[in-house]
Specification:
This protein is an alpha+beta fold and about 375 residues long. About 50% of the residues lie in helices and about 15% in strands. Strands 6, 9, 10 and 11 form a 4-stranded antiparallel β-sheet that branches. Helix 9 crosses helix 10. The chain starts with about 30 loop residues before the first helix and ends with a helix.
Length: about 375
């Protein structure tokens, strides 16, 4: 049945349609489909030479096929990789540049920015005000974490990540929200590492250990998800006590610093005094050992000498006794002042006293004294 140009369509039932459900008031008429097709054919006849018959249809079909074939060209940007899908299944990965795939619906291409290094911040946010020179916006619900010794620390950190070179398909099809997944895994890994650490080392010098532990834990978790994501680095931006108690924490830190300083000074003093005391003790012990060795050697010498004298005494008692007497008197009288008196019958028996010792002493007086005594 041909389409009628009369109002109401082919049923000619008035402006409300055959079931009375048409528009309530007369409006603009819809375009005539036959008129549109006729006009299109007329325009095409003007463009195409000759009779518009089978050749024209073939030519149109060839143009359509050519355009359909050319639609398979696509461009991959320098920071992207192309993933070609054949009926929805990934079949190959292409490098940046101009590439080709079979036209839709046979094949399609996805170009995710997998060569770009992405940055995910946890605990802080960058806003338009920040880019104009403002401060970072804190997110306490993400940054406040509980330590192993039941303290609270404020941790802000950033994660640098990218897609694995051989994990583009996993990145596209195994996870729905890559950025959200990385952020959730990063926060979870950081809370686990902080929960196994004490607050004091975190606030002083445990940053490198925490960063390495969080990176390893994140990579292990994402690999278990099959996310195709490589964690390149974890950077701690800030590890501080909560703002409400930061002054008290600083006082405690100052007290601990003073304690460590005093302990180091005491250790330095001990390292200086103890070796000196040990040196003196070793010297005393060595002197005692030397005195003992000397005394024992002297005693052994005296014993040996006594035994030798005794052997000689047994052979000649009188001679040995006389010799011992003379040696003893020689030893006694060697340093003793002596006065010799002749008790014989000849002479008076008294030898005039001549103070030879005093004369020897007076001869040793200084020249100044002797000179002074010689003046009138």
């Amino acid at each position: 049945m041909p389409w009628s140009n009369q109002p109401g369509g082919p049923w000619s039932s008035g402006p409300r349609g055959p079931w009375g459900s048409g528009p309530q008031q007369q409006g603009p008429r819809p375009p005539d489909l036959e008129e549109f097709l006729r006009r299109s054919q007329d325009r095409l006849r003007r463009v195409l030479p000759g009779n518009f018959g089978g050749r024209g249809v073939v030519l149109i079909a060839l143009v359509i096929v050519a355009l359909w074939g050319l639609s398979g060209f696509f461009r991959v940007e320098p920071d992207e990789l192309g993933v070609v899908l054949r009926f929805g299944k990934a079949v190959r990965v292409v490098q940046p540049g101009l590439n080709y795939h079979l036209p839709y619906p046979i094949e399609a291409a996805l170009t995710p920015p997998v060569l770009r290094v992405n940055k995910t911040d946890v605990g802080i946010r960058l806003s338009e005000e920040t880019r104009r020179g403002g401060s970072l916006r804190e997110v306490p619900e993400e940054s406040l974490m509980l330590t192993g010794d039941e303290n609270i620390v404020d941790v802000d950190f950033s994660v640098l990540w990218r897609v694995k070179p051989n994990g583009v398909s996993d990145y596209l099809f195994n996870i729905e929200d890559p950025k959200g997944t990385v952020k959730a895994v990063a926060e979870s890994a950081m809370r686990e590492v902080i929960g196994h650490s004490n607050a004091q080392p975190l606030l002083t010098g445990l940053r490198q250990t925490v960063e390495t532990s969080v990176q390893d834990l994140m990579q292990k978790t994402l690999d278990s998800y099959g996310a195709g994501i490589l964690i390149q680095n974890v950077q701690l931006q800030k590890v501080d006590p909560p703002a409400e108690v930061i002054d008290s924490f600083r006082d405690v830190q100052a007290a601990r610093s003073d304690l460590e300083r005093l302990a180091n000074e005491a250790q330095t003093y001990a390292n200086r005094v103890v070796p000196e005391a040990r040196g003196r003790a070793a010297k005393i012990i060595q002197d005692a050992e030397a005195y003992r060795s000397q005394t024992v050697a002297d005693a052994n010498g005296q014993t040996s000498r006594f035994l030798q004298v005794y052997e000689q005494y047994k052979k000649a008692p009188d001679v040995t006794r006389q010799r011992m007497y003379l040696e003893t008197m020689e030893h006694i009288l060697a340093n003793t002042p002596k006065t010799i008196i002749d008790t014989g019958k000849q002479g008076t028996g008294v030898i005039p006293y001549l103070p030879l010792n005093d004369l020897g002493k007076s001869s040793k007086l200084p020249e100044s004294d002797s000179t002074a005594g010689g003046k009138p």
